[in-house]
Amino acid sequence: MPEGMPVALKSIPYATGGHYRVARRFAPQASQTAGILWSFRNPSATLYAVVSKVRLRLLQIAAPTAAIEDQFSLTVVRGQTTGDTTGGTSIAPAATMQKMRASMGNSGVAFNESTAAGGLTGGNGTADGNFFLSGSVWVPAAVQTTPIQAPTEVFSFQPDLGDGEHPIVLAQNEAFRIRNENALGTASGLILYLNVSWAEVADF
Q1: Going by C-beta distance under 8 Å and a sequence separation of 6 or more, which residues neighbour residue 137?
Q2: Count of other CB atoms within 10 angstroms of residue 15
Q3: Fewer CB in 10 Å around end: N or C, the chain?
Q4: Following CA atoms 98, 103, 104, 106 in sequence, which dihedral angle do they give, to the nearest 10 degrees?
Q5: Residue 191 domain boundaries
Q6: pLDDT at 149
Q7: How many Å apart are CA 157 and CA 168, to the nearest integer?
């Protein structure tokens, strides 16, 4: 290509699938033990789930039980024929929701969020031996109020697809789980913010 030629990068072609995005504000349960906070699974035999962004942030709004390092992780899971649905609620996009364009197909992923102190359970599959993402935040015993506080980034994955970086590609019955790796205490004092973007496509 001649030097100086303009280049316009387009999103991943999606055919009958689509592009989707979900943002969540999550308040941990009282006495939240180590466990799965979110589970994202692709049950489709015909479409891949191409995850282009996962961002987790944390905001302290109250005093915890005691000062603590709160640890979080994302792990990819293979062969998950049964989802992590016990102790949670589905947040998968419904018809006409979370699409980047109204004419896109409805999302088919199974996206669940914990509503229990023990986190999500019930899923099978084999988790990778190492974290895909991990991070932690030190939560002090007293809430800092000045200057005005903004959420702290715990971890973020957003590959530059235009530069050849590879996204997470989930085939049928592949998934990822986001966990808190330690008990958060009787009172966590936390709010978590999660952003996930993905495409569902026939080939990648």
Answers
A1: 58, 69, 70, 152, 154
A2: 12
A3: N
A4: 70
A5: 18-201
A6: 87
A7: 9
- With respect to residue 133, please indicate whether it lies within any of the assigned structural domains: yes
Is 28 among the domain residues? yes
Distance between CA atoms of 174 and 41, rounded to whole angstroms? 6
Q: Which two tokens stand for residue 123?
A: 């899923």
Residue 136 confidence (pLDDT): 98
Cα within 13 Å of Cα(190), Cβ side: 32
- For the CA atoms of 119, 93, 156, 151, the dihedral, rounded to the nearest 10 degrees, stands at -70
What pairs with residue 176 in β-bridges?
Answer: 40, 76
Q: Domain tally for the chain? A: 1
Question: What is the structure's pLDDT at 8?
Answer: 46
Instruction: Please check whether residue 117 lies inside any domain of the structure.
Output: yes
- What pLDDT is stored for residue 161 in this prediction? 80
CB 169 within 8 A of CB 50: yes
Q: What is the DSSP string of 126-173?
A: EE-SS-SEEEEEEE-SS---SS---PEEEEEE---GGGT---EEE-TT
Query: Per the domain annotation, does 188 fall within a domain?
Result: yes
The pLDDT value recorded for residue 6 is: 55
Q: What is the mean pLDDT of each run of 10 residues along the chain (204 residues)?
A: 56 88 96 98 97 97 96 98 97 81 92 97 97 97 87 95 88 98 96 97 92
